[in-house]
Design a protein that fits this description.
Layout (H helix, E strand, L loop, with lengths): L1 H14 L4 H21 L6 H4 L4 H13 L4 H21 L25 H14 L4 H17 L3 H5 L12 E5 L5 E5 L2 H13 L21 H15 L7 H14 L4 H8 L4 H4 L1 H17 L9
Antiparallel strand pairs: 1-2
């Protein structure tokens, strides 16, 4: 069973071009089911056994995850991973399991993300200089990263995948390869180019055209965790709320565009969402802000008859 899972992982990594982080998520979810099924099926969990799993087995696994107090979101993702695995088995191994298609995902309450105050983003510039005061190139790097994510609405993985050659000569747009190897073009604001140019001029590592743009203290390509730590340090230094994360920078980009009149289709393209329903969450955020302003300012909201 281990060999077939490794083969599936290789397919996700090298054929679908999924990130190592994403492939690890699939691997964890599938092995969680296999481990459960081994106990459920009297120790039998080879491929020939797994392919015969019925609805009772799948529902028992979901119930077991609930017993372990795993979140609905985590379980929905795990079920999606398992469906993808069984679909791959059907296509590439001619092994069909119809039962998995009869299992419904747990309902997930979609929470509205919060946008960061623009004044807080502005304050990050001086905060970065204070945090990295002994290493000017790190301060330039961290500010370039913040401005890039906020100014272009990129995911962390997309920002960190950029190479020097992608950002030379002050480009007016960037070609981004996002989730599922989907390509999109995003405009680049002058402020983004300015911040990146300052960083490029003084960074001591990785200056060849094909080198990754963002580098660690030791000169290696910057990891997603390092990028998260940059914003985490800023959050602590400025005493900002817990929702201030790299993803919140991307979210703030989206809500600002929507508030400024961008249509959903354009926003969907800029963010690289495969489904318009994902982008539509931002309309709920924007409406929440509008209703808040209405409730605070409109006299009729307080029952006053004028």
């Amino acid at each position: 069973m281990n060999e077939i899972i490794e083969e599936f992982n290789d397919y996700l990594l090298n054929t679908k071009n999924y990130s190592n982080h994403t492939v690890l998520g699939y691997d964890t979810d599938i092995r969680d089911f296999v481990s459960f099924f081994a106990h459920f099926n009297d120790g039998k969990a080879e491929l020939t056994d797994i392919i015969k799993a019925d609805t009772f087995a799948f529902r028992a696994w979901l119930a077991n995850r609930a017993k372990r107090e795993l979140s609905h979101k985590s379980t929905a993702r795990a079920l999606s991973s398992l469906r993808t695995f069984y679909k791959w088995l059907a296509i590439h191994k001619n092994l069909q399991n119809d039962a998995i298609g009869l299992i419904s995902s747990p309902k997930i309450e979609k929470k509205l993300s919060k946008a960061i105050e623009t004044t807080d983003i502005a304050d990050m510039h001086d905060a970065i200089r204070a945090i990295d005061n002994n290493e000017p190139w790190l301060a330039a790097r961290d500010w370039a990263l913040v401005v890039l994510i906020f100014g272009c609405g990129l995911r962390i993985s997309e920002a960190l995948s950029l190479k020097n050659k992608d950002i030379t000569n002050n480009p007016e747009s960037l070609r981004i390869v996002g989730k599922g190897n989907k390509e999109r073009i995003v405009p680049v604001l002058p402020a983004v180019n300015t911040a990146i140019n300052k960083y490029i001029k003084i960074k001591p590592y990785g200056n060849q055209p094909d080198d990754f743009l963002f580098r660690s203290v030791r000169g290696l390509p910057m990891s997603a965790r390092m990028a998260e730590k940059v914003v985490e340090n800023l959050r602590h230094y400025l005493q900002l709320p817990d929702y201030v994360t790299p993803h919140a920078l991307r979210h703030t980009f989206a809500t600002a565009l929507l508030a400024g009149g961008a249509d959903l289709r354009s926003l969907q393209e800029l963010l690289g969402h495969s489904s318009l329903s994902t982008t539509q969450l931002y309309t709920k955020v924007n409406m929440a802000e509008i209703m808040s302003a209405y409730n605070n300012a409109h006299p009729m909201a307080h029952g006053e008859d004028k």
